[in-house]
Each structure stands twice: as structure tokens, then as C-alpha cells.
Amino acid sequence: MSGNNITSPLAIDLFCGLGGWTEGLLSENWRVIGFDIERHEYGDEKYPAQLVLQDVLTLHGKQFKDAALIVASPPCQEFSYMAMPWSKAKEKARAIRASVDEQRRLTTLFDACFRIQREACEAADRHIPLVVENVKGAQPWVGRARWMFGSFALWGDVPALMPMTTGRQVMKNGVTHRANGETNFHGYKSTGLNWSDRSKRGQDFTRVVGAQADGTKGNGGSWFYANKSGARALSLKGKARKRASAMIAKIPLPLSRYIARTFKPIDLEIAA
Fold first, then answer.
1. Would you identify the CATH topology of the domain 10-162+253-271?
2. What is the reported pLDDT for 194?
3. 219 φ, ψ to 5°?
4. Which residue from 76, 140, 158, 179 has the highest number of Cβ atoms inside 10 Å of its Cβ?
């Protein structure tokens, strides 16, 4: 498998889930270690590299002084929810804005990514780039994103030149996946998928997920670290729900491969 060579550059994937970042890194011959609080395995779908089961909040960046890149996708469920035009969502946003402690809690995992980067850079005595992905709705809470890839918002050391999405389309392995679902059942994040639509009960959930899967980020968000009570109330439950959410949360392969190529150390490229 590509990326296993000890001479390959090392990347750290925080909140790795099913490994959307990691798949692109491995394809560009990176060595990757992923961190998550649980193992996501759903049939043939599982994290494709070395996985460490550990709460990201307990990590110290000095562990990653040998890394050449850190990528991260902290949970986005609350950000996604509060961006919705629902009265309860707006009420929750107002309550959090009224509390400094709640604002700190909300951004704790996002902020941890930059703390870990800072500690890693200090331990390595060099800059280690970090790219953080989340939803557009996180911007009122963590600051403006540096780039949007479809509806995937990026912060950190985002390259000045980035690939573009065209007309709600994303390329995956040279195949265009459209919002009408004619070609894509890969489960990218979607604005069109309504998890509370009970009319979808009994359908193949993979097709339900993929029907709007065009690289735009959905309302479902990441459930890896969230309170599960809301998830249990919806039409997809238990492991099926978690698999669908994990599939939706995956970074598009064109984006992860682009970041992998951009940050691959030049001396290793020459040696290869």
C-alpha cells in the first residue's frame, strides 16, 4: 500500500473518521497516522491507515514534531445546526453568544487543532502546516474560512492556489458527480439531504445519502463527538446512521490529493 514506506513524509489526521483526508494522502505516498475517539468500521468501509484511538484534547503537539503536515476535521454538528433557519437553532445560537464559557466550549475542538500545531512547531523548531476543514456555518464562531471547496470550508495553511468546484460539481477519480444523484453514490456532504424526512424510511440509505452528494456539506454534519440523542430520533438509527454520517463527512478525494501534493516535501519529491 502506498504511504507505508518509512521514508515517506508523515501526516497526522485529527478527527480522522473514515479517512477522507487520509485516502488522498496515501494516494500521494504519504505515511499517515489518524486519531479519533472511536473506530469506524462498516463492512468494507474503514479507516485506511494506522489508527490511534485517543481523544484529540489529550494530545500534545510535541508528539508530532516529525510530521510534515497536520490535517483535521473537527466535529461540525453544532455549527451546522445553528446555521439553520429554525427558531430552536437561532435560540441556541443566542444562548451561546450570551455565555463566554459556552463560546469557549463550542470551539474547544477547533482550537485544539491550532494548539497542537503550535506545540508541534515549537518541538520541531520549524513550521508544520495545518489544514482544518469544517462547515461554512462555523465562520461566525471561529473566523472567516480561507477557502471554500464546494461547501467544505478550510482554515489554517491553505494554499494560495486551490482547485475550483464548478456548478455544484466535484470531480472524483475523473468522474463528475452531480447534485441530481445520477452518477454519485459516494456520500459527500450534501445540503439537500434532510435526515428527518421520514418518507425515506425503507430506502437504501446509501442511495439516500448519495442522492444529493455533490461535494456540498450537509446538515447532518459529524456525529463522532456529539450527543447521540438527536441521532436516535431520526429515521436512520444506530450503526446505519453512523455509517451514513461518516460517509457524508469524508473529504472529497480531489481536495485531499491536492493538499497532499501541495505540501509534500520537495526533497522527498526529488529523491522519488
1. Rossmann fold (3.40.50)
2. 31
3. -75, -15
4. 76
- Express each pLDDT in 213-235 by its tens digit: 334 454 333 333 333 333 333 44
Query: Where do the domains of the chain lie?
Result: 10-162+253-271, 170-248
* Alpha-carbon dihedral 34, 24, 226, 153, rounded to 10 degrees: 130
In this prediction the pTM is 0.74
Where is pLDDT greater, at 126 or 182? Answer: 126
Across 68-88, average pLDDT: 94
End-to-end, the C-alpha distance of the chain in Å comes to 16
